[in-house]
Amino acid sequence: xxxxxxxRIELTKAQVGGFVKPPISEWLYIHKQMVEAEKEAFGVxxxxxxxxETYYFRHYRMAKDKKVWCIGPVSLCNKENLDLAERxxxxxxxxxxxxxxxxxxxxxxxVIYACLGSxxxxxxxxxxxxxxx
Length: 133
Description:
By secondary structure, the chain is mainly alpha-helical. Helices cover about 40% and strands about 5% of the residues. It is extended and about 50 Å long.
């Protein structure tokens, strides 16, 4: 049974997989770092949207007692090999001109670009610009 959830959820050992194996020391170290970083964080970013999982979103927010931002789903890309190979190859799903036009509507420094994963690739100059703010 999965503890601390609003509903009773039961999983078999086969469904849980690697979670029932003894932990590897490197993973324990990484997990400890993640837990410590999360304690210091202002909030948590979640790859979902509140309307899909309202009940669990509220439960998670109360359990964390921090801000929780749902920004997903961010991984609804095609699973075909050709599509996977072409990810991030300057093939925008929206018109670049329309995107820039939309950005121009906002005040300077009021839009945040979040690149989560390997779907989008940035040029070095863009990384520098993001880093400098």
